[in-house]
Amino acid sequence: MLKRKIYNELVAWKNKSNGATAMMIDGARRVGKSYIAEEFARTQYKSYILIDFGQAPADILDLFVNDSSDLDLFFAKLAAFYSTTLHRRESLIIFDEVQQYPRARQLIKYLVADGRFDYLETGSLIRLKKNVQDIIIPSEEDHIEMFPLDFEEFLWAMGDEATYPLIRHCFEAKKPMGAALHRKIMNDFRQYILVGGMPQSVLSYINGKDFEASDIAKRRILNLYRQDVAKFAEGYEDKVFAVFDGIPGQLSKKEKKYKLSSLGKQARFRTFEDSFVWLNEAMIVNTCFNATDPHIGIALSADNTTQKCYMADTGLLVTHTFQDKKYTDNELYRAILFDKLNINEGMLMENIVAQMLRHRRSRLYFYSRSDSQTRENHMEIDFLITEGKKIAPVEVKSGNYRSHSSLDKFRKHFSSVIGNSYILYTKDVMIKDSIIHLPLYMAELL
């Protein structure tokens, strides 16, 4: 069993809602939604029924068409089919992969109003227009996003529940971890980068620290994503494939903005916009938008046509980068484990930071301005986050970086709106030149 933080959030919803709303778990495929839904049902309710709409029999689908107007009969047939006794206010009904059958989602409004049971939905690709175009989205639906395991959850999977509280303490106090402990945590963090946070990959790895088994699990997930593209992006699937396959190449460049010219000389954003949106809404990627004028706020000045496209799971990026080669030919495993990254492979560090920042934010932002005439105006900041009413620039650096000229210029240019400034790198906590330096594994605490 993998311990997940979302479990406690579901318990909190159950106690607070008391049947007034259903809960929708939204997440990428294979992120663990079905597993956590059933674990929650098993431990928190007297009985439960899980309806998997990915393979629901015709008899069950027929209930939603012909018997949903008579809920007494609806529940009686449901209980009989699954040989499960339903108890008023003590049973949970799970609509698993509900995007496969939108009619069931629309019925949530009436099921919640009936008040007999609790309802939990899981969905991947749930935001795609194709999966909601013919239904009225129920207002009685709470939403929670589910992501790959974060670093703390990865440590739990490795049997370590003692280290992360100390990481949190040192982050809050801005105190160094100490050389020996920092070295140990960075070693664990490198494993996390390579394995990623997809449950199947983590479970494959922890049984003997087997990177090859993890890589095989990740290849299955990537193939499943490709099947989803073919099925749900019908009509423009070739464009989605082109954008998706181009991600490693784009991230390996110094400036990681997605250059459409790599897809063809005539490529324009308007013709590929739906492809970027599809990958983002499927939660396969984490899109990062250029905030062109932080003076007026990062969300207000976001330029949706200029974006960076990170993989939502860095472990998947490791495998996706060498998708056409065997595991034994994947140089990234050796480079990460032995701390021998070259400048192009540094894409993994920026991707893992994007992944960790996204766990606490609905959107990611960066700042980029090119000015060949006036170098003082030429700046590139990896990420911008908000802290209260202030903006905090975040730069991702290697441990041996020599300067932070863009960060210095940005702090000077936008001094009136800037609070803290951060550099995330491979070394220990340090404050220098009024810039807070943090080890990469603290990124999810920002």
**Low-confidence runs of at least 5 consecutive residues:** none
**How is the quaternary structure best described?**
single chain
| Structural domains: how many | 2
What characteristic shape results from the CA principal axes? globular
Total number of beta strands: 13
Strand content: 15-25%
SS summary, helix count = 16
Q: Report the C-alpha radius of gyration, rounded.
A: 23 Å
Largest sheet strand order? 7-6-8-9-10-11-13-12
Describe the sheet with the most strands.
Answer: 8 strands, mixed
Average of pLDDT: 91
Helix-and-strand structural type: alpha/beta
Order of helices and strands: HEHEHHEHEEHHHHHHHEEHHHEEEHEEE
Structure summarized in a few sentences:
The chain has helices at 6-17, 33-44, 58-66, 71-81, 102-114, 151-157, 163-173, 179-195, 199-206, 211-232, 237-251, 269-281, 314-321, 331-337, 347-358, 405-413; strands at 22-27, 47-52, 91-96, 118-123, 141-146, 285-291, 302-311, 364-369, 379-387, 390-396, 422-425, 430-432, 435-439.
